[in-house]
Task: inverse folding
């Protein structure tokens, strides 16, 4: 596994230098790509440096770590909070903290936290590699869709899927057997992967399996009705394309 790129976000210069020394000396698997001393510096640096790991102090001058996390996309980053305050621990884990270390920083705790993250990253890369290989095999047949999240990877046949719904950075899959699966990829990504002869994006938030549309309802706005009773909105600009594909089936 390649070294994990990490960024230190710490407003106290002495603490930042000490952490940098500890990481460089005791965590050789980590490549430090920079240090930021406030929220503004971090907001600029993170998209440019693309760290996989943040060493993040809670208090950042006039701001705090949670203000920063609300303004960046941290979904693909591991976060280790390092702070003198233990009362923020619960809130930190709501922001998907990988670990929460208290100052004064203990080398053993830092090393153990980094080891856990490296193992998590290795597992993630293994899943991604195998998922990609499986997708490439199945793409040729246009039969199977890979639905992956933090807990597991599911493989769905196209005919199992009624429709997909956008949920922020995630996608919800609604299935014929009434199950719902959540995937940690956006609807836009699935739009490129799903068989375009079977699936159509009817709305910015919905992709539908054309085989399961039973009616187009124009009375109360544009809606398509599915064979399970679901009613999904159709955006005005997508109606013509939908009708074209339905006529081809």
Result:
């Amino acid at each position: 596994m390649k070294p994990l790129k990490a960024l230190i976000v710490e407003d106290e210069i002495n603490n930042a230098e000490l952490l940098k020394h500890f990481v460089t000396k005791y965590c050789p698997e980590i490549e430090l790509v920079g240090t930021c001393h406030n929220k503004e510096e971090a907001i600029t640096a993170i998209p440019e440096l693309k760290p996989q790991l943040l060493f993040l102090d809670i208090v950042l001058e006039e701001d705090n770590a949670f203000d920063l996390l609300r303004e960046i996309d941290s979904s693909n980053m591991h976060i280790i909070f390092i702070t003198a305050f233990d009362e923020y621990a619960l809130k930190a884990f709501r922001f998907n903290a990988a670990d929460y270390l208290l100052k004064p920083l203990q080398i053993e705790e830092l090393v153990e936290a980094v080891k856990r993250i490296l193992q998590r990253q290795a597992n993630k890369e293994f899943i991604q590699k195998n998922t990609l290989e499986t997708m490439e095999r199945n793409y040729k047949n246009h039969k199977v869709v890979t639905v992956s999240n933090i807990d597991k990877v599911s493989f769905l046949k196209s005919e199992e899927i009624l429709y997909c719904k956008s949920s922020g950075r995630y996608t919800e899959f609604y299935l014929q057997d009434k199950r719902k699966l959540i995937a940690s990829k956006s609807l836009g990504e699935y739009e490129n992967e799903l068989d375009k002869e079977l699936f159509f994006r009817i709305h910015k938030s919905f992709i539908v399996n054309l085989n399961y549309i039973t009616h187009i309802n124009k009375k109360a706005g544009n809606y398509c009705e599915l064979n399970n009773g679901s009613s999904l909105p159709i955006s005005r600009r997508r109606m013509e394309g939908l009708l074209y594909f339905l006529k081809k089936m």
